[in-house]
Design brief:
Helices cover 21% and strands 30% of the residues. By secondary structure, the chain is of the alpha+beta class. The protein has one domain. Strands 1, 2, 3, 4, 5, 6, 7, 8, 9, 10, 11, 12, 13 and 14 form a 14-stranded antiparallel beta sheet that branches. Strand 3 and strand 4 form a beta hairpin. Helix 1 packs parallel to helix 5. The longest helix has 21 residues. The protein is elongated.
């Protein structure tokens, strides 16, 4: 692991020297591998590094439901250099899509979340039955940030070494279906789901058992100015999840308990799991600014 960090540090130092040599005078656009960082606020002097991480697979077990990740989700933005052992301040993507919305299908759809005969309110029960009769039974779950992008914390050293917590995120999960309405969530800004993702071995409370991630393999691109990590697997199975809220709009006082009960929510720490398979790219804001100048 230490040799891995040494290679990373030497390559990034060399990258800075190369960027100085190649610097031009005109401002233009990003090219090549640098284009993926277009939404990083790299012209902000507080931003020292940029992240572009795509989750392409994995699973999330939330309460009694397990969702397979089939639609890629992107986490992107900038962050600061910090002292060893500290977490960096994160800066939002320029287009506002720090965490892209990637709906994932919930197994069993609405039938797995709601039992129409069990709904006592006539209007809501009729709406539920109408939904089933018209085939609108699919339910998507979408991971969203709970609060500000500044709440994200990243530790690049732990990512490079493959040890310790790499990424902290406050999240909420939106459940989407015509019956559930537009504001059906697990988690809120005040009561978020907290993930502390790592690539080494977890130490969860029971009944969960330790699981191990993967720090991935390093590839250097653009004359060592861009770092790519292939096969990164970030995991956390020590987090808790609250009950649902806002499901069914004005009838949420009826539907929330039903959806929560069917989903095994609230769910205490040790009963939930996140396994995220990623391809991660990082670079420096210095290299991005220089790439702009190199391509008039």
């Amino acid at each position: 692991m230490r040799s891995r960090l040494g290679v990373l540090g030497a390559a990034m130092m060399a990258a800075s020297l190369i960027a100085l040599v190649l610097a031009g005078s005109a401002s233009a656009k990003l090219t090549g591998e640098f284009t993926r960082f277009a939404q990083c606020p790299y012209t902000n002097p507080e931003v020292h590094r940029c992240l572009h991480s795509v989750t392409t697979g994995g699973t999330v077990k939330l309460g009694s439901k397990t969702v397979t990740i089939t639609n890629p989700a992107t986490l992107q933005g900038g962050y600061q250099d910090v002292e060893e052992g500290q977490f960096s301040k994160f800066f939002a993507a320029k287009n506002g899509e720090t965490l892209s919305k990637a709906p994932q299908k919930v197994p069993g759809g609405l039938a797995g979340l709601v039992s129409c005969p069990g709904i006592s309110n006539f209007i809501l029960r009729a709406a539920c039955e109408w939904t089933f009769e018209n085939g609108l039974t699919g339910v998507n779950s979408t991971l969203e940030l709970a609060g500000s992008s500044n709440d994200i914390e990243i530790n690049e050293l732990n990512l490079a070494l493959g040890e310790g917590v790499t990424l902290k995120m406050k999240l909420k999960v939106r459940l989407e279906n015509p019956l559930l309405g537009s504001s059906c969530y697990v988690g809120t800004s005040s009561k978020p789901i907290l993930w502390e993702l790592r690539s080494d071995t977890t130490n969860p409370p029971p009944p969960n058992k330790p699981i191990t991630g993967n720090p991935g393999t390093i590839t250097f691109l653009e004359k060592a100015r861009v770092l790519r990590l292939n096969g990164v697997e970030l995991v956390d199975n020590a987090w808790a999840a609250p009950a649902t809220n806002g499901c069914g709009g004005i009838f949420s006082f009826i539907l929330d308990p039903i959806v929560s009960a069917a989903s095994g929510l609230p769910s205490a720490a040790g009963n939930n799991t996140a396994i995220l398979k990623n391809t991660v790219h990082t670079t420096t804001s210095f290299a991005l600014n220089q790439n702009d100048q190199e391509n008039p």
